[in-house]
Structures are given as C-alpha cells and as structure tokens.
Amino acid sequence: MNTAPSSLPNAARTGIFAILALVMLATRIHHFDILPDASWAVFFVAGFYLRGSARWGFPLLIALAVLIDFFVITGQGIDFWSHYCVSPAYWFLVPGYAALWAGGAWLRARYAGLHVRELGLTAGSVLVAASVCYVISNGSFYWLSASVPSRSFAGWLENLGDWYLPFLSTTALYVGSAAVAQVAVALAARRLPTGAFAQR
User: Fold this and answer.
1) Are 44 and 130 in contact (CB under 8 A)?
2) Rg (CA), the chain
3) What is the 8-class DSSP label of residue 34?
4) Angle 93-109/57-75 helices, nearest 10 degrees?
5) Can you tell me whether residue 158 is helix, strand or coil?
6) Any residues with CB less than 8 A from the CB of 15 and at least 6 apart, and which?
7) How confident is the model at residue 57, as a pLDDT?
C-alpha cells in the first residue's frame, strides 16, 4: 500500500497542518533555547504534504510565524517595529519560506514510495531549498538591516559562512525526523489487512 501524500484526505492534511503549527509554536517561541527553531523544516514539510488543494497552509503558517514573533518581542517589553530583527529584511522571510515550501512540493511531485531514490531526492531538495532560503534571509538582513553598520561583499561572504551550517543542519534534522515518521506510517499501512479502513 502506498501512502503517497497526494492521496491524503483533507482531514489528514488539516491534522498535519495542526501538528506543524504546534511544532513551530513550540520551537519558535524558545528561539535558540532547548529546542532550535523548526520553522524552516515546517515550511519544507508543509510544502510536501499541503501542496495543491491545501495551499492555504502557506499564508496561515506565515501569519503564525509573524504572530509568534510579535508576541515574543512585545512580551519582552520591546516595540515590535524597533526590534533589530524587524527591519525591511524581515519581510524577505516570505520568499525565503516560499523557497522551502517549493522544495517540499518539488519532492512530493517526485515521491514514489519507500525507495532508496527518495532518500537522495530528499537530501538534495532540503539542501537546495534551505540554501536558497538562507541566502535570501541572510543576504536581506546583511544588506538592508541597520544592525549591520558597515557592509562589504567580503563581509557578507564571511557572515554567510558563520551561520550556514547551523541553519542547514537544524533543518535537515527536523526534516529527517519527519521522513522517519513518514516511513513508519507507510510501513504500518502496509501491514494492515486489505479493507481495514473500509470496515471502520
């Protein structure tokens, strides 16, 4: 039995969206605390499961991310618009997260079940999507934020190198966890007797 995401009913997609929203809520609030922020992986996984008829997931996740940031920042007694993270570059997170969503959607369009090929496709799509998101988010902050006093191309390249691997490894870790869950569900579905769902 193939549990390809394209065959998921709307109720399952809604449930997946709720889980992803909770994961982002739990980790984005405690940014760089016990659990690293899972937002990048959330958008990638959401693109994998929610592409197509559930495209509503993208704007809702964007709105949730902004709301979380707003309440975290204002909860510290800081004006949202004066926080160093909230500059014109902040809104470049939208195309950055869109790149992650597109990476997940690209992977889903090529997903054919439990095969070694999918492992390579997953690794490649995560690498490309997270790298594009990183260049957009890091580059926009470096070149547009007032928090960077002096700018140079060499300085940007150095800054890119400082944070690239931590962001990539965190995203890969969370996406890998989602992939393990996908495999577990697919294997469990294969063991169900024929017509098990129809009898319920």
Assistant:
1) yes
2) 19
3) S
4) 140
5) helix
6) none
7) 93
The tokens describing 42, both together, are 């959330």
pTM of the model: 0.87
3-state SS string for 108-175:
HHCCCCCCHHHHHHHHHHHHHHHHHHHHHHHHHHHHHCCCCCCCCHHHHHHHHHHHHHHHHHHHHHHH
**Would the pLDDT of 105 be above 70?**
yes
- Do 142 and 159 contact (CB within 8 A), yes or no? yes
Instruction: Report the C-alpha gap between 195 and 200 in whole angstroms.
Output: 9
Query: What does the alpha-carbon distance between residue 114 and residue 184 come to, in Å, rounded to a whole number?
Result: 10
Per residue in 122-171, pLDDT (tens digit) is 999 999 999 999 999 999 988 887 777 788 888 888 878 888 999 999 99
Q: How far apart are CA 138 and CA 77, in angstroms?
A: 26
